[in-house]
Specification:
The chain has about 180 residues and is mainly α. About 75% of the residues lie in helices and about 0% in strands. It is elongated, with a radius of gyration of 24 Å. About 10% of the residues have low confidence.
Amino acid sequence: MKKLRLVMILVAGMFVAVSCDDDDNENVVTIPEADRTFAINAADGGMFEVRAGEMAVAKGDSSATGMVMGGDSMSIKSFGQMMITDHTKANDELKGIANPKGIDLPTTLSNAKQLKLDSLNAASGAAFSTMYAKMMVASHQETVALFEKQSSGGQDAELKTWATQKLPTLEHHLEMAEMIYDEVK
């Protein structure tokens, strides 16, 4: 009888221990779906900018396209390098914000972005420069709109602040891309 009682106590203790494990969910951060979607789209766009920038450095024209912001001249290659530098930094910052919140950021490009990159890769010479500049204008228009929406309406304070801080740089990229495109089209 003592053995049976001991077994029942042990079994009851296992049930209590199992039911206590559910309390771990209290530490999970719940991120609104719109904020999660912003982070995923921002990561996708950032990866696209880096990958396209790598192509620009490898295949772009190194001669200056003309005067851009502040009177500086900028080539397709130098703009591509700036995209690599700035967007790699932003992507790393986003990972640092998203990972603790349990947001799984993509590690590969979306199909739509990959198709754009594939078409860019097929171009060369002046056609590459024109296509790259045009893509950078369109991509930065999309990105600025995405970040403006998050900056004004995001619910997660950290993602909202990050988006707000990144907007001036993204707007500067857009202005530069527009100026470069005007020179190469």
